[in-house]
Write a structure and sequence with these properties.
single chain, 14-stranded mixed sheet, 14 strands, about 450 residues, Monooxygenase
Length: about 450
Amino acid sequence: MAAQDLPNELLGRIIGLMEPASTALTARSVCQRWNTLAVPHAFRKIILRPTEEGSTEEGFKAWGALLENERIKDAVREILIYSHITDDDEGYWDELPAGFITALQKIADLHYIEKITVNFSPVCCGPESIGQGITSHETYEKRISVFEAVFNAIQTRSNQPGRTSIRSFAVENMQNAPIPTFTSSSLFKSVTEDLEELDLHIVQEHSESRPESDLHEVELVTFEPWLQDSLLMPMANLTSLSLCIDEFWGTAPGTFNGRGLAFPRLKSLKLKYFNISHYNHFDWVLNQTTLESLRLDSCTIATILDLWNPEMHDWEPIAEDTFGSDFGELFLFPGTWEFIFDKIRTSLPNLADFEFFPGPRYIREDRNSVREDINPTQQTTVLYGSRYSAFCESEGWVDPTEFGGVIDFCDLEPNEQAMLDRHKPAEEGDQRALDELLDATKRRQKQ
């Protein structure tokens, strides 16, 4: 049967399944019929990205013209908003131009939006660094201005008749700096009360010239408590939550213990680089008993800690003379993934989808240090050798040097490292518990 003989419903579905998604735009040029059928697919997701000429309303003329089309306005379900021109230091504004804010207000004209994603620059600079004369092209203050402009546009839209509620919100390259004035505002509360899906990818300031100072930035201590208590705690309607931070988080320098977090409708949770350092540290996840899907990406358990922390329960001090006089007070946390996997299996009765996999940072170019059965391009549940970590106050979080290798910690001798490493001693118990957890999720899938 020729394409022209297919019924509209079937042909429209075929166009929607074409890869890449941009093919639907090309399909519009075939004929009037294909154009009509392709529009809902071609404009399901639209992008607002500033240009060099975007400092005035003239620079966003094409965006405005696009949203004058009634069929396109009905087709849009997702908007990706870029706050910057390019990811490098060449494309930036000192402040938000009027044209950008006017373009955002066009969101009010869209009838059926389901999701908004805000994409910031991956390079960020904290308020303290700015005071020291260190700058980046997208400042802390500018990021707040973008949030306010986007949320104002969403609130304006919500006051229009016949508009669906925006249920999903995502942020790419969110800076790990608290914005308490914004999250305590009525604007923030009114927009987030209807959210069901939240996806946060969080980055932090990093200085190539002074990496040792990164550990002492004030936002590293204050951000995680703010994330927990001010941003997440009010969002009780969430059904899906993804927290991906580009560095280990949860233990140090800041603390995220999850106490008080309750999401009675939560079905899906993804955590990236979350670090566990207490027996009850994962309880906030286990308390979400409605969970059906849990993904742990590059999450670790802290084994050795060279620091002082307000929350030091479950940490066992190591005798000061164990490694000679060069080392100060060290602590050992004896927790294992066997304990965590067993708790997940017994505490989350609805869990039918579980993934535990290493992220790209653990895939080495040296193939001799990587298990041959792990494909770097795929997310594969495996008992990876980097599932335990250590914190050194002078170096920060220390990764295991290879899959199945030992932790290279504070220049300890190999025999001393082996005394502290948890990977090999815990391997049998961890594998047993992981296998039983995966078996339990498979049985639930069949129910």
